[in-house]
Design brief:
Layout (H helix, E strand, L loop, with lengths): L2 H9 L12 H6 L10 E5 L6 H7 L3 E6 L2 H10 L5 E5 L2 E6 L2 E5 L13 E6 L8 H14 L5 E8 L14 H8 L3 E10 L5 H5 L6 E9 L1
Parallel strand pairs: 1-2, 1-6, 2-5, 6-7
Antiparallel strand pairs: 3-4, 4-5, 7-9, 8-9
Length: about 220
Amino acid sequence: MKKDFWLERWEREEIGFHQDEINPYLRQYWQEMHLAHDGMVFVPLCGKSHDMLWLHKQGHQVLGVELSAIAAQAFFTENDYTPHHVVSGKFERYEADGICILCGDFFDLSKDDLANVGAVYDRASLIALPPEMRESYARQLTSILPPATKILLITVDYPQQEMSGPPFAVSSSEVAALYREHAEVRLLAQMDVLAQNPRFKERGLSQLQESIFLLTLR
């Protein structure tokens, strides 16, 4: 899956992955992170997610990374922010009121970019990537985060042959395989949610499961 895929999705406004409501699992399980009130949260492949606003309202600084400038600009415009915009290395930096989005390639991030991060919220990043990219993603993420960083990870799982992603099916065993070398992996909850997601049933799915993990880097 190339960068152009996501850029074109935003250009054509084919953004069914964008949620207008705050993710209920974020509300329910964020307390498990035990992040300091003013701690910084990293949101990979953040799009224009409203979840960043919720995190900010909890007192956190928020740092997102997003490939599409359309998405980054839309986040600030739609939420009545006028961001400060500068070019910083390989990224365009949009920032206002404690929320910053780095516009560029996730794989260009360095340890310096995430030096102040205390937690990660991944609802739509790992599951946005095809199998051949997920190992590289996990390796990059764990290599640039500070030690002891906690990750709240939300995944979906279903018979992959029944639907082409994204979102892609990511099993609990794959999450363990991707992260156990670098982190403690704890499954917080797992639910069958096909009945609550008719659009996926219409796409041919016979099963749909959502899982919430807490990962703690070593």
